[in-house]
């Protein structure tokens, strides 16, 4: 009787998620770790090999003898981008910038490429999505013309590496990494294998030659960066370019930064002549009026470590349908619904539940932090009673379901920003700390005390 062959664990095929690296012994359509669909692929078990010690390329040194000047950031000429990067671009650093289509990534990076170009530091802009003529027309429109800015339209990785040998740039901008492919790798451009190969080759070239590289990445319908998660781990900096295409405001957030903090946010304004940085963006989020209007309240939000004064607007209308409408823009619908429930139960404003409620922010800013709760609640109460809040008043605080007003972080920075813009009165939670000169602060512990700022109707 023939001996029965036994399949060992080493001979079994195994499967791995290309996004997060999760492993399983059988194929699944959905990753059990990151929940991504269609990313589990079979791979063979590599043979166990031992790597012999090789020749050392650079000797190890005591850390105090390592030259740190090689990692000194060089300004890009765009202060708002330098703020997020931590001072500028470091030679050899690779930056991944992602954002929705039409948000202005190509416009901003073309402006950065032109301003960073100089006689001693050339810039190479490689476009894989547009022709060279299209990019030239955009450069004429935004004034991004420089003798030291080189432009190439390529979708082949070997050609891009050839341009690096010819131009010898100090800065490379690739728009975008999903459009470039390597002829040595099977698969269409933008696939998992192609993105890994293209990014890996450009990262190696950047490190070897000391070139600062900016890669433009696509995003999925959920807003996440498209491609393998490995791409975000390989690069040094990951930036998200955000903004509503119908508004002028654009924000750059740092998600990962090996050379600085991720708390900084860069603000830009998109207009017909291009995109410009905003050192004082609060003016976009305010409506200047001679007299206060019912249903409006100002607050100070923190974008990273940056305080921004924003305006919340609310409108209540008698509903003509059994189920009143709840429409929001720039605010979280769930938090607005919570504020309505608190006002009705704790603030004794019973008529508000039977009205159609419309709430929004000004200028396209999105308020998601709990510190805007008090401003949202006061705007709703002001609209329901048709009485305006006092002029030059800002409201800062988180509101709980019990009606209490809770403390938030950065109250002093928020009050300093409000005082700088000329606001003289503020509603804040108890114990706000040091108050800026000229600012009158009213500490409130619950919504009952906060609603007393509404003037009584005659």
TrEMBL record:
InterPro entries: AAA+_ATPase, DNA_repair_RadA, P-loop_NTPase, RecA_ATP-bd, Ribosomal_Su5_D2-typ_SF, Ribsml_uS5_D2-typ_fold_subgr, Rubredoxin_2
Domain RecA family profile: 70-219
Sequence segments annotated as region (Lon-protease-like): 356-458
SUPFAM superfamilies: P-loop containing nucleoside triphosphate hydrolases, Ribosomal protein S5 domain 2-like
GO-annotated cellular components: cytosol
Gene Ontology BP annotations: recombinational repair
GO MF entries: ATP binding; ATP-dependent DNA damage sensor activity; damaged DNA binding; hydrolase activity; zinc ion binding
Annotated residues for binding of ATP: 99-106
Domain of life: Bacteria
Entry keyword Zinc-finger: yes
Bilayer-spanning residue ranges: none
Motif (RadA KNRFG motif): 256-260
Keyword presence, Hydrolase: yes
Annotated keywords: ATP-binding, DNA damage, DNA repair, DNA-binding, Hydrolase, Metal-binding, Nucleotide-binding, Stress response, Zinc, Zinc-finger
Description of its domains: The middle region has homology to RecA with ATPase motifs including the RadA KNRFG motif, while the C-terminus is homologous to Lon protease.
Family: Belongs to the RecA family. RadA subfamily.
Matching NCBIfam families: sms
Function as written in the Swiss-Prot or TrEMBL entry: DNA-dependent ATPase involved in processing of recombination intermediates, plays a role in repairing DNA breaks. Stimulates the branch migration of RecA-mediated strand transfer reactions, allowing the 3' invading strand to extend heteroduplex DNA faster. Binds ssDNA in the presence of ADP but not other nucleotides, has ATPase activity that is stimulated by ssDNA and various branched DNA structures, but inhibited by SSB. Does not have RecA's homology-searching function.
Protein's recorded name: DNA repair protein RadA
